[in-house]
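Slide 14.
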Amino acid sequence: MTPEEKQSIFDLETKLVLPTGFCESLLAEDDWSFVIKLHAVFEAALSRLLSHHIGRPELLDIFSRMDVSNTSTGKLAFAKALGYLEDEERRIIRKWSELRNMLVHDVTNTSFDLKAHIELLKPEDQKQFLKGFFMEEWFQPDIHQQRGFSEAVANPKDFLFRGAMSLLSQLSSYFEWAEYDQELAHQKWLKKMIQDCSEE
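Slide 15: predicted structure.
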């Protein structure tokens, strides 16, 4: 991770009341815990971002109970409507949700091995799976090149982790956007109040 990403992750952990270094420590978890916990961080970040945007922290619990990926009423639908998250970023979070849902509903999946799962797939399916978690500008191996693809297949957990940290860093920056939007809204309100008073 870049120093900027590390700072953004630290800021996000603070907002989510997580121990410092929590996100980075997930790479050392077994693969099942890695997926479940990282998805939980995405969920928590989205819930807090939405309540932060609205400026109503008491709504956090309601947002937390909402589905993530429902395209009509989920957290990602709200985030899209409010102008947060690019299409690719929402797609990647949906892929994390799919992977999490695949693992969480069957207790035998606690022994899930991401590398073994990838190795069982045909090469075209391996690339399709990895593409679901890939964005060009992130610090991931370029899976469109043979060397990058081979590196990602050999260490898919690291590949997913790098992408997840970049996305969490971006989510952290959206909190700044929300604060800027709130400041603009306050300025508009203040300007209107001054205008109304001057007209009386």
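Speaker note: The two ends are 57 Å apart (CA to CA).
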